[in-house]
UniProtKB/TrEMBL annotation:
Natural source organism: Aureispira anguillae
Protein name: Uncharacterized protein
Superkingdom of origin: Bacteria
């Protein structure tokens, strides 16, 4: 609950932060709790008890103080949830207006409510706000019955509208279900996309469903590498159609109707485009999508956006693929904070495994400030790592060679996981060949390896071979220059 209250408090607007102090001005312990929340960070129960009840620590049982804190915490949580419910952070202007008109109907201001509901209804139909229409039309009928401002035919017309609105909202929820279904069952992509196309083909007068069709087809389709790489690409057509519709209907929501819905979908969609261009083997366009996402986040610094560890891994990977190592370090820092905040004690890909790649590629221009420390971190991680982390041994070996830890490099290269991985790759030149030449300071061997690796890197068409030969070539060139 401490974590929840931290985020609830951080979501308060400045004015509401002033209000909370006024509301609890007669409760000194609550004001101390608010002071602690203002300080930020993760305030655990022990820290909170020590801060709020510092004067009672020596005179009152700690269990009693903890129970008092729990009561205090429950009280502030209820207050914060009440504020959140009506916060502009959570409600669009249309939702706020609908909430106000709901109040007007409750207070029997029916004539006024009908007039305002009609104006709001028109905006909802124009912008395909299917989430709001069922409740809005229910309120309309309730107000009409109460004040009898309309005839029977008009009320019947609104009943017909209500029935359609309920069906449209149901279909909208079905579209959201399909998105979640495809994330878990991407093998059914063609089946689901065809089903969506059939369900929306007669609803072209509601452009939101057309946008959703192209949005889902592209967003899920980018995870089908076989489809993305086809020359005559349906995925590309979905991308182009979606981008055109976004320009045509700039106010219309696509997936969720919430504050800044279009900005959020644009940020989300940048990741999909980055994935698309990555599979298209176009790292520059992939990175351009990432930069556009970065710019949107800078333009809207207070925007609440969904983030996940998987997304951060992808951002780092796309930057590495585009050789944008400085930007990769920014996302590595974000991943470090994310993994720390989520209290991970077992990681498949810890942030420092990516640091290895970055500092191998930036060497010698930018060097790791503490190579021994990161080698120890990686070595500790690898003691419990599974075989799918075999690539880390290879990167560790590269790092150790560049930073002069040759014994550590040989130890990493000897690991069975890495040997099995390289055996599957069947590379023409292995890292051991390079390590032997470096240990012997054999300039002729290094020169020969450099020439061979240059040709292999140039002719490689498979990404994993290109990546492997590029890393070895960089090391060979560095030591050849150093030893001459």
């Amino acid at each position: 609950m401490n974590h929840e209250i931290k985020h609830l408090y951080e979501g308060l607007e400045p004015l509401r932060r002033k209000n909370i102090r006024m509301f609890f001005q007669q409760a000194p312990k609550m004001l101390l709790y608010i002071d602690l929340l203002e300080q930020g960070g993760n305030a655990n129960t022990n820290k909170a008890v020590n801060y709020i009840y510092s004067e009672e620590l020596t005179t009152t049982s700690r269990n009693i103080l903890i129970n008092r804190f729990y009561k205090l915490r429950t009280k502030i949580r209820l207050w914060l949830l009440t504020q959140l419910k009506n916060s502009p952070i959570c409600l669009t202007p249309e939702e706020q207006e609908l909430a106000f008109l709901r109040l007007m109907v409750i207070k029997n201001e029916h004539v006024y409510a009908v007039e305002q509901l009609k104006a709001l209804e028109q905006r909802c139909w124009e912008n395909n706000l299917f989430e709001l229409l069922p409740e809005l039309l229910q309120l309309m009928l309730r107000a009409m019955h109460a004040c009898e401002v309309s005839d029977k035919e008009e009320r019947q017309n609104y009943l017909t509208k209500l029935e359609e609105a309920i069906e449209l909202e149901h279909l909208l929820q079905k579209m959201k279900y399909y998105i979640n279904y495809l994330y878990a069952n991407i093998q059914d992509y063609n089946l689901i996309i065809d089903r969506i196309r059939r369900q929306t083909k007669n609803l072209k007068h509601y452009p939101r469903f057309v946008m959703l069709y192209h949005f889902i087809a592209f967003s899920a389709g980018v995870f089908r590498e076989d489809l993305v790489k086809k020359t005559s690409n349906a995925i590309t057509r979905h991308l182009n159609q979606f981008n055109q519709l976004k320009k045509t209907y700039p106010l219309m929501p696509i997936l969720d109707f919430e504050p800044f819905h279009r900005e959020k979908i644009d940020i989300h969609f940048c990741m999909k485009e980055a994935t698309f261009w990555y599979y298209k083997n176009n790292p520059k366009k992939s990175y351009h999508s990432i930069k556009r996402r970065q710019q949107l986040l800078q333009d809207y610094p207070d925007l609440y956006t969904r983030s996940s560890e998987a997304e951060l891994h992808n951002l780092i990977y796309f930057c590495l693929n585009a050789e944008e190592y400085t930007t990769a370090l920014v996302y590595i820092d974000e991943l470090k904070a994310y993994q720390a905040a989520n209290f991970y004690d077992r990681l498949d890909n810890p942030y420092f495994s990516y640091e290895l790649i970055v500092y191998v590629n930036l060497f010698p221009t930018k060097q790791h400030p503490n190579p021994a420390e990161i080698i120890d971190q990686i070595s500790h991680f690898l003691t419990t790592a599974q075989q799918d982390s075999a690539w880390v041994y290879g990167t560790l070996a590269e790092f150790c060679i560049l930073y002069g830890y040759l014994d550590k490099a040989r130890e990493a290269l000897a690991h069975p996981y890495l040997k099995a991985l390289y055996k599957g790759y069947n590379m023409a030149i292995q890292m051991e060949d390079l390590l032997v030449a470096i240990e012997e300071k054999n300039i002729l061997a290094l020169k020969s390896l450099t020439e061979q690796l240059t040709a292999l890197y140039k002719n490689a068409t498979v990404a994993k071979y290109k990546f492997h030969y590029k890393g070895l070539l960089k090391i060979a060139q560095y030591f050849l220059k150093k030893l001459r």
